[in-house]
Amino acid sequence: MSANPALVRTHANELCPAPFPQEVFVLRRHGVQIDLQGVQTRQKGWGARGALYLSNIRLVFVAEKADESGLVAFDFPLVYIRGDKLNQPIFGCNNLSGQCWPAVERGGPAGDLPPHDFKVYFKEGGIGTFYPLYYTLTERAKMAFAQLHGEGAGGGGGRQGGGADPNPPTYVAGLVSHAFVDPSDPSTVYLAERQPVDESQRLMHAPKYAANYGEDEAYEPMVPSAPPAPSAPPAPR
Description:
One of its GO terms (cellular component) is nucleus. The protein is of the alpha+beta class. It has a single domain, classed as Pleckstrin-homology domain (PH domain)/Phosphotyrosine-binding domain (PTB) (PH-domain like, Roll), CATH 2.30.29.30.
């Protein structure tokens, strides 16, 4: 997860993440609002409206406008998302909540930086197109990298070297071509042969995860220690 990933303009003149090598965009979902904690703003949090981009390797939020600190987009690697949950309240809009490890030095599941809490509110329309695609790609990513590093699937993970790609472009192309399109979901779905940006805008380097992934130690949240038990009164002489 990183602040302000490289952005480019789509064929429709919308801001979009610059694709990594072998990255395939699956959809764009407008009309969402994000609540993100632990980022470097004056409030140590970020609330903004904008659009979500889902690809085979990440989820990226792009705001309609930058905040006063210059923050305009955030990158959520699928392998670093954990505890994600779809919430469908009776009153209020559907929302996706969870945590994501920061993809920076000292970050990741083996680092000493805590994960970021996030919540994405879907302010316009349903989620019947977005959520099944998001869920499938994220679960495959987490399970594949958990197996690679011998961890439970729920803990998230990151690749530091080899390992098979859990969501290769060929798989994603088939997934998208058979995806259910919910008429109430305003997501724009991208076919493999009709990506939102020109191939010349593709980045030359692969995404970077936390450098310490795979080390023995793991982040543990700080909790208040239990008070010592009261000592027993001395026995009468």
